[in-house]
Amino acid sequence: MLINKLSEINKGNINDQIEAIVLITEIKLKLTKNEKKYADLSLQDASKKIEAKCWEVDENENFLLSLKANEAVKIKAVVGEYQGSIQLTIKEMERAKEGEVNIRSLIPTSDWGIDSMKKGLQFFYDKVQSPHLRLLLDLMIFSDDHYERFSTYPAARRVHHNFYHGLLQHVLEVLKFSYTVATTKRLTDRQIERLIVMGFLHDWAKIFEYKPLPESGFTEEGTMLGHIFMGAHKTLNVMKEIADFDEEDKLIILNGILGHHGKLEFGSPVLPKTVEAQILHHADIMSGDVESIQSFMSEDGNNEESFTGRLWNMGTEYYKKG
């Protein structure tokens, strides 16, 4: 059975043999307790990620060792289940021929539309009137050095917005939520400007923390330093380049970046110390949590149960039939 999307596979396909073109995101050779070699594989297309096993390693070891992460392959596999989740058992695998598939078509991508999102960025940028704050955004967001990465990188390795244009979508969500609260609570124009700048910059350093898709995982810099420190550090350096940058704005914006995780145990080295920083923190949480739930529901869509499985990061399951 030819599968166009991995999301088409469900528990009704158990024991079926399927064919598909997928992207290998990770491959590890391991040993069973009986010292038999097998391969653990992580596969994906634009619709879903899925785990797979290959038990016939001895006759395929050289081929498996030659494979690199983020290669497109054609597979024939049997659908199975392990601990409640779909798992594939690979029977045949070969490299996809050049021109047979576009790698970008196998990468999950925001469905918001890039042109619409860029208009959204412009909308919030236009709300910032203070010259030194506009220049900060010009240098950090809209410069040739950063704009392409800011527009294309994921916002996380997994859990939420872990797709092409994911960081951009997350930032826009945070800006929308923040702006709604700020105007509802009648913050001053200057507070709203600061909050918008914080929204733009709070996760900006993820363009240095993460590897570009289709790669996954952290860079060495990201592993060692993390986006919160890098974001505040690099923002401070740019602020120093701007003549007569307002000292109060500097402190408030940096506190917002450093405190956006909201708690010391969640990785923020300081707590939010302003109403703007507190709004930013809650907007960030709302964006991430809602996306996480919706993403999990989408992946679990073929399961006929009323509730999703338990989301490890949320600590509960969610009703799907609303």
From TrEMBL:
Name its GO BP terms in alphabetical order: rRNA 3'-end processing
Against CDD domains, the record matches this protein to: HDc (cd00077), YhaM_OBF_like (cd04492)
SMART domains assigned to the protein according to its UniProt record, in alphabetical order: HDc
Q: Which Pfam families match?
A: HD (PF01966), tRNA_anti-codon (PF01336)
Q: Which domain of life is it from?
A: Bacteria
| Molecular function terms from GO | hydrolase activity; nucleic acid binding
State the UniProt keywords alphabetically.
Hydrolase
InterPro entries annotated for this entry? Answer: HD/PDEase_dom (IPR003607), HD_domain (IPR006674), NA-bd_OB-fold (IPR012340), NA-bd_OB_tRNA (IPR004365), YhaM_exoribonuc/phosphodiest (IPR050798)
Please list which residues make up the signal peptide. none
Task: Pinpoint the HD/PDEase domain residues.
Answer: 163-298
Record's keyword annotation contains Hydrolase: yes
Name assigned to this protein: HD domain-containing protein
